[in-house]
Amino acid sequence: MRLSTGTAVLAVLVTTCSCGSAEPPDLFADYLGSTAVVHDRFPAAGTSEDRLADFAAYYTPDELAAELFRAFPCEEPPSGEESGSNEARDRGAARCDAGRAVRRAAAEHAPDARLHGRAVLVGYADGGLELGTVYVATAPAARPLLIDGTGRTYPGGLADFRRHNDLFSPADHLLVPSDPADVAGGGELVVVTARTSTTWPWLIGLGGPAVLLFAWALLRYAARAREAEHAESVLVG
């Protein structure tokens, strides 16, 4: 039985795409055990085991996640000190470091906008971790607006951010509330790719060029087969 050209090519591409799927990383577990998180609110002073024991002394996992990813008003003064005091650990040392571009974007969104910060945990493709911050401008007569640290705005929320940000690559991941613009809650924590790929999935990775070459060869073979069949039918006829 001979597959049609389109069916054969589609089968190759779908199979390759399926083989490239992978489970998202467990970024929260990685965060708990890491002693090298950039911009961490709980800088580690010892080993991974020391860090885990320290967390366990102050928080349950749910309490720590709630503290890390809560939205906080940018008018809120720094809580505790980064020196490792008990107060800093109890409150997560939440700080709002919004620059002029962020504050300008909030003011343009609404003159009476209030600015909030919210942490996002970034897992880079090279294995590095960073506790970053996004911002949310809220106003009584306007929808909440998500803003990144450069002042770029994302009216469509997390999906808009993933589609259009220039901060991360499709190989990076985020641990973030499903609705980061909702400062009253934010929904459940989700792990998503940090940027939506604009490249077909089967082009990602080292296998992409080989797949394209194979598909091109398959199309060439099919075209020659059709030409041969046509020539044979002419001679027989």
Overview of the molecule:
The protein has 237 residues and is an alpha+beta fold. It contains eight helices and seven strands, in the order ααααβααββββαββα. Strands 1, 2, 3, 4, 5, 6 and 7 form a seven-stranded antiparallel β-sheet that branches. The two termini are 25 Å apart. The N terminus is likely disordered.
Summarize the structure.
The protein is an alpha+beta fold and 237 residues long. It has helices at 5-19, 27-33, 48-58, 61-69, 86-91, 100-109, 157-164, 207-236; strands spanning 71-73, 114-123, 129-139, 142-147, 153-154, 173-177, 189-193. β3 (129-139) and β4 (142-147) form a beta hairpin.
Write out key terms for the chains shown.
237 residues, alpha+beta, 8 helices, 7 strands
- Per DSSP E runs of 2 or more residues, the count of β-strands stands at 7
Helix content: 40-55%
Computed CA radius of gyration, to the nearest angstrom:
25 Å
Gross geometry: flat
Number of helices: 8
| H-E string | HHHHEHHEEEEHEEH
Query: How far is the first residue's CA from the last residue's CA?
Result: 25 Å
List segments where confidence is low: pLDDT < 50 over at least 5 consecutive residues: 1-20, 76-91, 199-208
In terms of DSSP E residues, the strand content is: 15-25%
Residue-averaged pLDDT, rounded? 79
How is the biggest beta sheet arranged?
A: 7 strands, antiparallel
Structural class: alpha+beta
